[in-house]
Amino acid sequence: MLKTLTTIGFAAAVALPAVAEEQWQTSWYAAPQPGWDAGFALPTNIPLSLQDQTVRETLRLSAGGQRVRVVLSNRYGTEPLVIGEARLARAAAGAAAGASHAITAAPAGVLTFGGQRSVTVPPGQQAVSDALDFSVRPLERLSVSTYFPQRTLPSTFHWGAQQTGFIASGNQTAAQQLPGAETLQGRLFLTAVHVSGGADGGTVVALGDSITDGNGSTPDHDRRWPDYLARLAVARGANASVANAGISGARVLADRMGERAAARFEQDVLAQPGVRSVIVALGINDIGWPASAFAPHDPAMEAEMLIAGYRKLIERAHANKVKVIGATMAPFENALQGTPLSDHYSPAKDAVRRQVNDWIRSSGAFDGVVDFDAVLRDPARPSRLLPAFDSGDHLHPGDAGYEAMAKAAYQVL
Question: Is this structure's pTM higher than 0.70?
Fold first, then answer.
């Protein structure tokens, strides 16, 4: 049974904000996921375990600030997570392209938890570091290095990070470079970076699937549509945070690659510091997975079922005074063609997509609508992506498509 997420307090040596009035924003986010069994259509691509190893991950902030907190999650763990040491630093220029020298020559800041360098995080919980006086600029790249002294099962991870990470032997959290380190294509335990002390523009959460997670974008260059959205906000002088809660394979109504939307809505949306609005960009996997290699035995999705799922999310957002924006689903004709997953698309499935999109546009249930379908479709054949926006798999946009999506989303916020 999955455990309810809580943040452990001082008795367990995990820090909470020192000043109650301090206004925090989620400047960067990677939604935690549980692992899945080897029989699933896709591999997890993460190591089976860690022991006496350092994991270094690069990330790009959205908003800037004067103080920083880092969140490490054991949301899906069944054993205590022992963190020996963690450090935060500014990423070197090469880190954007996946270079192994992931921090600058400047000393890395040691993260503490209740004043201690190490912390043990119980199953189902997360550790929030003490606030670190560490001035960061909007869109700045940072590096987080975490040392795992004991055998650690990576039960809480993020698949498809679109950013190269590294695993090195021993405690190398303070090392400037990690020569000979193994590469990591996902994220392990690192969940969020919070900032305070900048202009408080609030947090926008992008709750989505692989399209929000950036599949099809250029790796190591931050070209997911929420990344482009953050750039637009900065260019227009806003210090708004954009928290990317996209999970590849995510669905509104069912689990597998991440929990269903209702199950993770509290943690991934409502619990985010400074949250003011959420963009719900989900549904295509609910429609496409049944009768495919992803979910061969699932019954076909009906529009009314998916709409009922959206309504529940809208109710929860409004109950917490959070603005909720609906996103239409992009066309996906011939998605994953030529692969064992080509049954993701069919004309019947596309008819359900169109029906649901019509409801998103016309129902008035959302506080606003961003029409990704209209932005991305080929006018000559509306059931498929415009070739200039297609990453090549006919399901995920490429960089140009993601930039166009961000421009459309910005107009609605």
Answer: yes
